[in-house]
């Protein structure tokens, strides 16, 4: 019987629901339910009374949690003590737009907290990164979380939600989106990528008869062209180094703007791996620092 099943059971009781445990542990609701089912099969007894509208823990569930709590606390204390310096190397995959914006912050944080840990950073689109992660070629990845929520085989840590925005040349003040579309060429973000397809779909709603003049493979390239006055586009909201290098006018698409969820993912079995945890924590701290 896997020890993590007892950790999940403890999380359910602490958070008061399966959904709360799923959010606490970065698992899907179905993965939490499956772990409880496996634990019940192993024990040969139910751990939750499911006769009502909500599942209530049985006395056995509470007894088990109380009995293993000391072990859970001891394991967590040992894991977080981290008296031994992290060494070795981890391989991190990221989507392209994060490399000039977030990765400098993340690597700076890792270097500060774990100076003996080496990180190899590779680039790819989200689908490629997920395939490499599942195949064991990556230790972790920062990517766009699928709208379905993502594979339950992986652990997910949501980092930030990015709205899509309309971008126009910096000297285009005072014009509406409709006016800007009539005045400038349409620059399309790569439609082989999910974000590019989202942008193209939204643009067809704004200007159904508009066709792209140029199609570009990266957000940086789109920003550079827009900043130079060559056209307008729709991209995920940009910040930091990219807009410092390529100033543009970013116009909100309103409350119905599409968004993309940036998340950190690793294999479920690596959730407690200290090197992978170092990557995950560095991303969380970096995004929190920027938000502040």
UniProtKB/TrEMBL annotation:
Pfam families, per the entry: HTH_1, LysR_substrate
Matching entries from InterPro entries are given as: LysR_HTH_N (IPR000847), LysR_subst-bd (IPR005119), WH-like_DNA-bd_sf (IPR036388), WH_DNA-bd_sf (IPR036390)
Keywords, comma-separated and alphabetical: DNA-binding, Transcription, Transcription regulation
* The keyword Transcription is annotated on this UniProt entry: yes
Q: Does the keyword Transcription apply?
A: yes
- Domain named HTH lysR-type: residues: 1-58
- Which superkingdom heads the taxonomic lineage of this protein's source? Bacteria
Q: Can you tell me which family this protein belongs to?
A: Belongs to the LysR transcriptional regulatory family.
Q: Which PANTHER family match?
A: HTH-TYPE TRANSCRIPTIONAL REGULATOR, LYSR FAMILY TRANSCRIPTIONAL REGULATOR
Protein name, as recorded: LysR family transcriptional regulator
Q: What species does this protein belong to?
A: Brevundimonas denitrificans
What lineage is on file? Bacteria, Pseudomonadati, Pseudomonadota, Alphaproteobacteria, Caulobacterales
The gene from which this protein is expressed is brg1
